[in-house]
Design goal:
CATH superfamily: lambda repressor-like DNA-binding domains
Strand content: under 5%
CATH topology: 434 Repressor (Amino-terminal Domain)
Distance between the termini: 7 Å
Order of helices and strands: HHHHH
Radius of gyration: 10 Å
CATH architecture: Orthogonal Bundle
Helix content: 55-70%
Number of domains: 1
Shape: globular
Number of helices: 5
Length: 64
């Protein structure tokens, strides 16, 4: 089951959307959509970029 923990992890690390965007190379707008759940099927490449920027595994960020 897909369950996004992106916002929770980002806030726990004290990272803004803008900073995460710069770290991951993923646009602020797309990150915002992922956090809100209006986009729920990111590509493996995008999940890898975000997870690496947060120093987490894909499973930790995107799956229960």
């Amino acid at each position: 089951m897909y369950k996004n923990k992106l916002k929770y992890i980002r806030e726990q690390k004290g990272i803004t959307l803008l900073h995460l965007s710069k770290l991951s190379g993923v646009s602020v707008g797309y990150l915002c959509h992922l956090e809100k759940g209006s986009r729920s099927n990111p590509s493996l490449e995008v999940m890898e970029k975000i997870s690496k920027a947060l120093d987490k595994t894909i499973a930790e960020v995107f799956f229960v």
